[in-house]
Amino acid sequence: MPSKVLISIIDDDESSREAVTSLMKSLRFTVKAYPAAADFLASPHVRNTSCLITDINMPCMTGVELHKYLVESGYDIPTILITAFPDDSTRARATANGVIGYLSKPLDEDALLGCIRSALKRDKP
Predict the structure, then answer these.
(1) pTM > 0.90
(2) Is 1 part of a structural domain of the chain?
(3) How many structural domains comprise the chain?
(4) Based on the number of CB atoms within 10 Å of its own CB, is 13 exposed (0-12), middle (13-18) or buried (19 or more)?
(5) Residue 55 forms beta bridges with which residues?
(6) pLDDT digits (tens, 9 = 90+) for 77-125
C-alpha cells in the first residue's frame, strides 16, 4: 500500500501532529505535516496528496472549511477529520459532504487505518 502514497497531516497541536506523523511513518507512508491549513495550501503537495488527515478545530481555517475549500477548488482529496471535541451535527454535515472519516482524539489506530484504506481505495481510478 504505502510507497507512492502521500499522507498529508494538518494539526495545530504539535504533539498530536507528531504522533500521527510518527504512526504513518512507522507504516512506511510518505508523510508531510503542517501546523495550519494555510501551510498545506501553500505547499507544492496539495496536488499529489493521496489522503488528508486534518484536525477540525484550528485557528483561521477549520478542517471542515479546508475540506469544503478543496472540493470547491477541484481537489477531491479523501479527507479524514479528527477532533478532541466530537459533535454529531458536525459529523453528519462532514460525512454528507464527502469526508471519508470523522474520528475522535485520542485516535483509535485501527479506526484510522480503516479510514486510510477506504480513502486509498477510493483514490484509485
Answers:
(1) yes
(2) no
(3) 1
(4) middle
(5) 82
(6) 999 999 999 999 999 999 999 999 999 999 999 999 999 999 998 755 4
